[in-house]
Amino acid sequence: MLDSKFETLRNHFGIFRPVDWCSVRPEWITRIDGVGPVTLDHLRIYLAMQNLILLDDRTPEHWKQTLGAVKIGQTLGDPEEPGADVGVMNPFTILIDSAEQNPFTFLNFHADADRKNRPLIVPTDWRPLGRHPESLGDYSIEGFIGRCHVERKSMEDAHGTILGWDGRRERFERELENLSRLDAALVVVECSLETLCRQAPAHKRTAQQNSKALHRSIIAFQQDYSVRWLFCDTRRLAEQTTFRFFERYWHKQHEAEKQTAKELAAVSTEDLLAAL
């Protein structure tokens, strides 16, 4: 399957961010056992949607025209693995803050049954999403900056931020204040609440004292700033949660826009009939 091939490639070349692919030549990819030209083309269109290319490859514009979403999603077969899924393009682009140190890749997602559960190619782009004191988290959606954002926290980052090391707590509280003004905002943590508290470090205070401070601070943050927090058992679940959070918001806004267009069209028709 394509998702397993992408995972194999990422592990082989040590890929952590989409931009890392820019140091990999196309011919290196097809030398990997089980990987052929179709997988390579899926990777090319994935990168092209983010204005990236493989090392010394054709331009993103070339691949967008040659390997557009319709062709990738509907007409390409996979001679390397007959019957394998082919990718479909996600309808929105996820924006990653340019200062994000360990970003989600949004790889290995699948569409719903209406698109035969095919692998989703999720376009991403790097943008500044705000700096202190106007920070707005680590992720957003193209066209919805200032309306829908997600702040990602690893366990280590959550420990240092919530416990206030190096003045990070004050900056985070200002960010929560900014997020609380948005249509939709989420803090997603890459571990469970139980794990976060149980593995509290002994730094400046005892581990038991820090565990209590973490638990009570999180309760206070959610009361004071009305921003949702979701604790996920794994980083992968945190990534999936972020994607689905954005997916639901995008679909909700898309449906609202379509409904508004219908209402405007109906009003225009009524005005036309009244003028006759």
Protein described:
This protein is an alpha/beta fold and 276 residues long. It has 2 domains: 1-90, no CATH class; 129-276, 3-Layer(aba) Sandwich (Rossmann fold). It is 46% helix and 12% strand. It has 10 helices and 9 strands. It has helices at residues 2-13, 26-29, 37-48, 60-66, 69-75, 155-162, 168-179, 193-198, 207-225, 235-275, and strands spanning 88-89, 94-97, 109-110, 119-121, 124-127, 139-141, 148-153, 184-189, 228-231. A 6-stranded mixed beta sheet has the order 5-2-6-7-8-9. A 3-stranded mixed beta sheet has the order 1-4-3. A hairpin with a 6-residue loop joins β6 and β7 (148-153). α3 crosses α4 (60-66). It is flat and about 65 Å long.
What structural category characterises the helix and strand content? alpha/beta
Q: What general outline do the C-alpha atoms trace?
A: flat
CATH class of the largest domain: Alpha Beta
Task: Tell how many strands the DSSP assignment holds.
Answer: 9
Beta content comes to 5-15%
Largest sheet: 6 strands, mixed
Relative helix content: 40-55%
Q: Ranges with pLDDT <50 over ≥5 residues?
A: 69-84
